[in-house]
Design a protein that fits this description.
Length: 420
């Protein structure tokens, strides 16, 4: 699960957080997830400390008594790092590191660190570096605290503390360079996207909480081998593949980064072009892992982020995944399915549901072709949803019935004109 190499020494981590009236619904799940994130980043959680307060302390997050208790825990466990579940201001970071005399991170920096490890493509690496620079700059410039961390480790990957110290006067320049490089990549992505839009290809986007099983379902629906791992943020770079239905219809399916609670705004900004691959979808498949006890919270988180990204108006099918791990689950919501992403019969049900939803938005058609043009049927099925194919030997015709999108209506018009 962890991304640490054998040569690296695991950092001993203490997790800290405040449960308050503001976060009482989400805190337990969020704090548990923080431990999972720390392990994925290669750390070893040796202890935790939680305080119930009306609100966080403006200077040290935890109250004075809990800070003393935290200092004792650090000494007892020989801990090297404290990770707070809350987002730390630059001032809080400085005060906490001066007080605790160990490396201090927050949830946001931990997520950024994992993204840095996950990014494989040049675009992904640039996006993560930009997000890290945006987040770290106000916390490092004018401060000698964070800059003293030359050992790297969790929170020190990506652009790196040493690089930031060397380039502290040129951070804006570096950010400008990254933006310029990303604009070139984005223009290429926009051209590819425009080609798909112009071609009228039906576009389906996969969205969901990280580790919900999107990659498994993507692999099954597109019959391709992708990175399928039981890890948070296993997929960062968008991946688009052709999806072929049993009736011959074809669409483009796109998988992209999984969502998470408190996804840093810096990451949303940096991955804007990547996320827009799903934003331009005709249909979204929202994958929900019902084996996770916090699946309802995860579902709400995804819907909230989709709203923030102005994607909530896109038609959506909710796929409740991993039914084999939660056989008692039941859902009667509109446009939803309960499946196991590893079941071929359930994958067929997903395809059937997609066609059902698409057909509701397409216009019905009926066309006749001469039997001599039978060779055209295969190509037509890729563009149109054919639900019935009849051979009329008396009139030497092939009759196709089904549904067609507005973008492909010209195909029907051309055939009708040619046979009139």
């Amino acid at each position: 699960m962890a991304l640490i190499s054998n040569e690296e020494k695991q950092e001993k981590i203490i997790l800290a957080g405040v449960e308050s009236p503001e976060n009482y619904r989400t805190f337990k799940a969020s704090f548990k997830e923080l431990g999972h994130l720390a392990e994925v980043a290669g750390g070893m959680v040796v202890d935790t400390i939680v305080q119930n307060r009306e609100k966080i302390d403006s200077k040290t997050i935890l109250g004075k008594g809990k800070i003393k208790e935290l200092q004792q825990l650090i000494e007892m466990n020989d801990a090297t790092t404290v990770i707070f579940n809350e987002r730390l201001t630059p001032r809080q970071l400085i005060i906490l590191e001066n007080t605790l005399q160990v490396k201090v991170l927050d949830r946001m920096q931990l997520i950024l660190d994992i993204f840095s490890l996950r990014a494989k493509s040049r675009e992904g690496q640039l996006q993560v570096e930009l997000a890290q620079l945006k987040y770290l700059m106000p916390r490092l410039v004018g401060s000698n605290i964070g800059l003293s961390r030359q050992a790297g480790g969790i929170g020190g990957r990506g652009p790196g503390e040493k690089k930031l110290e060397t380039d502290r006067r040129n951070l804006q320049t570096r950010m400008l360079q990254i933006n310029n490089e990303l604009k070139i990549v984005e223009r290429k992505r926009e051209l590819n996207r425009a080609e798909r839009i112009d071609s009228g290809v039906y576009k389906i986007g996969l969205v969901g909480y990280t580790n919900a099983g999107k990659s498994t379902i993507f692999e099954q629906l597109t019959d391709t081998a992708t990175l399928v791992q039981d890890q948070l943020f296993a997929t960062l770079d968008p991946l688009s593949k052709k999806m072929k239905f049993e009736n011959g219809f074809e669409a483009v399916l796109t998988d992209t980064v999984g969502f998470i609670q408190d996804l840093p705004t810096e990451l949303i900004d940096a991955f804007k072009s990547t996320l827009e691959e799903s934003k331009y979808s005709d249909l979204l498949l929202h994958i929900v892992d019902i084996s996770d006890p916090d699946y309802q919270l995860h579902e709400e988180t995804v819907l909230t982020i989709l709203k923030e990204l102005k994607m909530s108006d896109i038609q959506m099918i909710t796929i409740y995944n991993k039914k084999d791990l939660n056989p008692a689950f039941n859902a009667n919501t509109f446009n939803s399915l309960i499946v196991s992403g590893k079941s071929s019969s359930d994958i067929a049900k997903i395809q059937q549901k997609i066609l059902e939803v698409i057909s509701q938005n397409f216009s019905p058609f009926s066309i006749q072709l001469p039997i001599s043009e039978n060779y055209r049927v295969y190509a037509l099925k890729k563009e149109l949803i054919v639900v019935a194919e009849t051979y009329d030997e008396t009139h030497q015709q092939i009759i196709l019935n089904g549904f067609v999108s507005q973008a492909k209506a010209w195909i029907i018009a051309d055939i009708e004109e040619g046979t009139s």
